[in-house]
Structures are given as structure tokens and as C-alpha cells.
Amino acid sequence: MFVEEISMFMMDLCLVQVSVDQHPDNQEDLGPNSVLVYRDGILMAAPLEALIQHMVPTCDYYPEQKFLFAFLLSGRLFLRPVDLLAKLCHLGDMEQKKLQLEGRGRDEGRLVCVVRNFVQLIAEWVETFPYDFRDEQMMVMVKQKCIACDPRLRRDVANLLQTLVGRLTKLERYEEFLERLGQQELSQTTDIQQQSTTPSEMCQLVQDVTDICPNPTILAYQLTHIELERLSYIGPEEFVQAFSKDNPPNLTATDGSSTSQSGHHHSDRVPGTPGGSSGSDAKKTRNLESYVQWFNRLSYLVATSIVRAIVTHTRN
């Protein structure tokens, strides 16, 4: 199911890429509705600036959740999240000024409605892509926006910040656990290598997992729990960054400059990790890599357990 959704997303992303290539980015003078391409009532493609404008909530309009997820996920291929947030804040401020100039600024309810919808937009971003906010600039903008909010929205802002801190704290604890686990594994491997000189001696020093848990059903359940936990920490954006590994896009910064990553990658580094362009969508986690390592080791364990059976018909 997840693979099918990713495939559909990549097909839609190709349509967006074609539209971005066909239309210049400096179409801010055009109305957003005039450049949005719909098919059967579904938004299929549009220039980047029009998509950003379509994402800005107003008092009478709030973007669909499907569109928010798709654009926040794929938009990072063309624009860094921090630059996208800066553009959204700018357009949100313009929307409030527009209400004031039209004489509707007297109606404080409409202004509060605009701000409340904007806070809701950031809240959905935090809930879906919390790792984006590990960027210091992102946090600064969010805090500034929260401080400037109407006091009547204080509870909504508090809930937003509480959710964000909770998600990032949970991630930090998980990363600390993985680091401790890696250090423990390295220490045990070093001790075994120092105490053994032949492969047979090394095998005798390694404790068999079946001795710890002889029941295969319980062992399978425990391994499933571990795998699901590791999967739960993978952000959707990590798959996009992995898919773009061999074809890093040019990213546009807020100052209009174009940035791109080096075309040379190694198996132990993915786009956005330290060593790439400073203007790229910096990768904030290594949860996908950690899961791949876990899956590979699990595969080795299963294969080793199978081939250890000398009699062929007992290997099932």
C-alpha cells in the first residue's frame, strides 16, 4: 500500500516538474487560479509560485490536507523548507494587510480567522514533517510568528509548540539510543576479535539468539516490534531525499539564487547530509539508513539460521 502511494506521488511529481519547467517562477503578477491545472477537480500541476500561493490560508479558504501533504513532501525538491516557510509567512502578512486596505480590518474576527488558519497550517506541518523544524531558522520563524499571534490564539499556539517539542524530544531520545547501541556493538565486536584468533573461536564467543529466546514465535513477535518501532521514526521526506540521490535538483533560495548538490555520492551518504551544498534541503535524520542497516542484519540472521541446518528438509 505504501509503495503504491509513493509510486503515485512520483507520477504526480513528474507532472509538477513539467509544469515548473514550462512556466517561469516570476509569475507573481498572475492570479493563482489562472495557472493551476486541474483534472476531474483534482489539482495536477502548476508553477511553483502558484502552488505556494495556493497553500496560503485565508479567512474563507484553507488548503486541502492531501494537497498540503503532497506539496510539503515534493516541494522540498525545488525549495528548501525554511524558504517555503519564509514565503508563506510573507504571503500571510500580505493577506492580513489586504484585509485592512479593503476596509475589512475593522472586523477583528476575520483577522483572527486568518491567523488561526495559519497557525493550523503550521500545526499540520509540525505533525506531518516535524524533522523540518530541527533547522534553527525554522524554529526562529515559528517562534516569531507565535509571539506576534493574537492573544486569543494563545492556547492554539501553546498546543502547536508542545506538539513540536514532544516530537523532537522523542526523536532525540531515539537517536541517543541508537548511538548507545552502536557504541555497545562496537565494543563487543572489538572484545570478541581480541579474544579469538579463528572463526570457530569467534562463533563460540557469540551468544546465539535462539539461546536467549528459544521460542520462534515469540522471537518473531519481538523482531516485528523492533522493526515497526524503527519504521515509525522514518519521515516521509527521507524517501524523497533518497529518491533524488542520483539526480539532485536545483533548489531556489529566498534571495532568488539557485543552489545544487554535488553529483558525486557514496553509499554511506545521502543528499542533504554534511558535505553537500549549504543551500540544499539538509537531511536532519538518518532513520532510513538505520532501518536499512537493521533490515540487512535481520536478513543475514535469517539466512544464517537457515543454512546452519545441515539436513536440507529441516530448513523450512
UniProtKB/TrEMBL annotation:
One BP annotation, GO: Ras protein signal transduction
MF terms (GO), sorted A to Z: guanyl-nucleotide exchange factor activity
One Pfam family here: RasGEF
Name by which UniProt lists this protein: N-terminal Ras-GEF domain-containing protein
GO CC annotations, alphabetized: plasma membrane
Sequence segments annotated as region (Disordered): 244-283
UniProt superkingdom: Eukaryota
Gene3D superfamilies assigned: Ras guanine-nucleotide exchange factors catalytic domain, Son of sevenless (SoS) protein Chain: S domain 1
Organism: Phlebotomus papatasi (Sandfly)
